[in-house]
Structures are given as structure tokens and as C-alpha cells.
Amino acid sequence: MRPIRRLAKAARQFGLGGTARESKLPGAREVRLAGRAFQAMRQRIQRQMVERTEMLAGVSHDLRTPLTRMKLQLEYLPQGPDKDGMKKDILDMEAMIEGYINFASNAVAEETQPVDIQALVMDSITSHDQAEDRLKLIVPDQKIPMIPMRPRGVRRAVDNLIGNAVRHSSLCEVSLELDTEQIQIIIDDNGPGIPKDQRISVLRPFVGLNPDVTGDGTGLGLSIANDAAL
Description:
By secondary structure, the chain is mostly helical. It has 7 helices and 5 strands, in the order αααβαββαββαα. Helix 2 packs antiparallel against helix 3, helix 3 runs parallel beside helix 7 and helix 4 crosses helix 5. The relative contact order is 0.10.
């Protein structure tokens, strides 16, 4: 049973975004066949994810080049509402490109490592410097230990959640709560919130709320955050 448990553990780890090391499983022929099939599947999925990320990175580069030219050409236009509107369109397109790249990058397996979660959250808050006066960080009295996690994925998740909060509210509290088994990052704001009947569907990629209420977006932010939390 031990080889089967090892295979099940590797499958769970890979399913949660971690990496499963190459290893030969001892035991019955059927167990060894299952192990080889899992390793082949893992390699195929990782290769596809890397290829998708590289493709999106190439597309992003190709799209940013004409966007940069458009931004330079805009500087020669006289100031006015048309110029402001075009600037906003370019910024929106740049944000969408960045969102697609982040979504693809989040799917690529990332090794867990010990992380100072308080410093990570504080850095995220600081990066929202235009809204820093509306953000408040609450930390527990006890010292928070280093916690094993995927730092890039968690940072993107925190950035997206805080970005949503400051975009749709006037006040946001970010708190860290520590117990014996886990650390919770709670982001609480006074915005309109998500309707109860949309709280599951909104976690899927490219699904957004009513843009009249929530503003523009790629529909990927909450999906990225949800993947990092799993």
C-alpha cells in the first residue's frame, strides 16, 4: 500500500500546483505502470502549460509594440477628451494583456518555499500607493512564522483581491489571522460585494460581474486568487 500512497500524495501535490519529483515506484507491476503513466501525464501537462505561457508572452510582446507606438503618437495630439479617451483605451488594453499573462503564469507549477506572509501582504499594500490611505493592515499579536507556500501565486492573488477592493470601495481592511493549523488573509471592504447567486460562477476564468457596477476588467482576477488559495 505504501507505493500507492506515495502516488496519491504526488497526484494531490501536482493537482494543487506543486511539482512532483521523478521517482520509480516499487511494488507490483500494476503499481509501476500507474506510476509511469502519472509521470508521463505530469510531463505532458507541464509542457503544455509552459508552451501556453510562452505563446502568451510572445503575443503580449507583439501587442505591446504597437501600443507603445500609439502612446508615443498620442503625445503629439492636442489635449482634449478624445486624447484622454484613447489613453484610457490603451491603459485598458495593457491591463488586459497583463491579466492574461498572469493567468497563464499561475498555471505553471511553482515550488513552495518558506514565505514571510506579513511582509508579502505589506508589499502588496504598498504597491497600491494611490490608495494607501484607504488601506489598513491588521496583524495578530503573536509572531507569524515563515509559512510554506507558492510566493508568486499568492502575491498575485493578494494583489488582485486588494486591487478589486480599492477599486470598488472607499475603505479596505486587510487582516492576518493565525491559528494552530493555518493563516488566513482576510480582505474586508465597504464596497457593494458580490451577489450571492454569482459567488461561484465569478471564480471561473473570463466571468465578470455587470461592468456598469464593477467597471472594466478581464474576468481573471478572482480566478487567479481562487487557484492560489486551493
